[in-house]
TrEMBL record:
UniProt entry tagged with the keyword Membrane: yes
Annotated coiled-coil segments of the chain: none
Keywords: Membrane, Transmembrane, Transmembrane helix
Compositionally biased region (Basic and acidic residues): 200-209
Protein name according to UniProt: Putative membrane protein
Membrane-traversing stretches: 6-29, 41-63, 108-132, 139-156, 162-190
Positions of region (Disordered): 200-242
Keyword Lipid biosynthesis appears in the UniProt entry: no
Top-level taxon: Bacteria
InterPro entries: DUF4126
Ranges of residues in domain DUF4126: 5-192
Organism name: Nocardiopsis metallicus
């Protein structure tokens, strides 16, 4: 059960920041005994892996703080964050059987090539949900705050990702409380983002309709090429002869 909670917490953290939980897993596995990894996942604690993850984390940290760039980053992260969620859940689940996740009657093979694929799929799905909530809410926050909220919200997401990943390993029982709260917040962010976008679309449609009304077909323009020459009242016979 604790291993399942660890995997859920790590995958949730990966949905907010792909590299934070990977680094947490790698560093704790290398320098402590809190998270012993199976041979399949020991590459996560290799020094080269940790250095690469550290560099990628710095790039992600900077890119996610800049309005507009953060939206592009979220598009790119659509594949990376679920992958991170699958890896971290798989690494956390490497010490228990798949029946903890899928149940006895699932009929799914627990391990293939040393990888618990049910755990990997579950982790990728969880991370994808939180990634979508983040990606949908961020442009709305940028618009409402004129871009000023992007670095603040991004920093809070990074902090949340770190603490959730740490809790998932050190105090996995707390994930029973944290995960439902994150789910509720994620659903709210998705619904709020959809509502704001719908309102903005409606405003644009109203503006277009108002623009068509003010420039209707029965309204003459103020200036029209050749209008003076075609106006018989301004150009009488005398002026035309002169």
């Amino acid at each position: 059960m604790f291993a399942s909670l660890t995997g859920i917490g790590l995958a949730s953290a990966a949905g907010l920041n792909a590299y934070v939980p990977l680094l947490v897993v790698g560093l704790l596995a290398r320098y402590t005994d809190f998270l012993p990894l199976s041979p399949t996942w020991m590459w996560l604690e290799h020094p080269v892996t940790l250095i690469i993850l550290g560099v990628l984390l710095v790039v992600e940290f900077v890119a996610d703080k800049v309005p507009a760039v953060d939206t592009i980053n979220d598009v790119l992260q659509t594949f990376i964050r679920p992958t991170s969620g699958g890896i971290t859940f798989g690494a956390g689940a490497s010490t228990f059987t798949l029946t903890e996740i899928t149940g006895e009657a699932s009929g799914i093979s627990a391990v293939a090539g040393g990888v618990i694929w049910g755990a990997v799929i579950a982790g990728a799905t969880i991370a994808l949900f939180f990634h979508l909530a983040k990606a949908i809410a961020r442009p709305v926050i940028n618009v409402l705050t004129f871009g000023l909220g992007a670095p603040v919200v991004s920093f809070l997401e990074d902090v949340a990702s770190f603490f959730v990943a740490l809790l998932a390993v050190l105090l996995p029982l707390l994930i029973v409380i944290v995960f439902p709260l994150m789910l509720i917040l994620g659903v709210w962010a998705i619904r709020k983002g959809g509502r704001v976008r719908a309102e903005k679309r409606a405003q644009k449609q109203d503006q277009r309709a108002a623009s068509r009304t003010t420039q209707g077909p029965g309204q003459e323009p103020r200036h029209r090429p050749g209008m003076l020459l075609a106006d018989p009242q301004r150009w009488g016979p005398e002026k035309r002869r002169g």
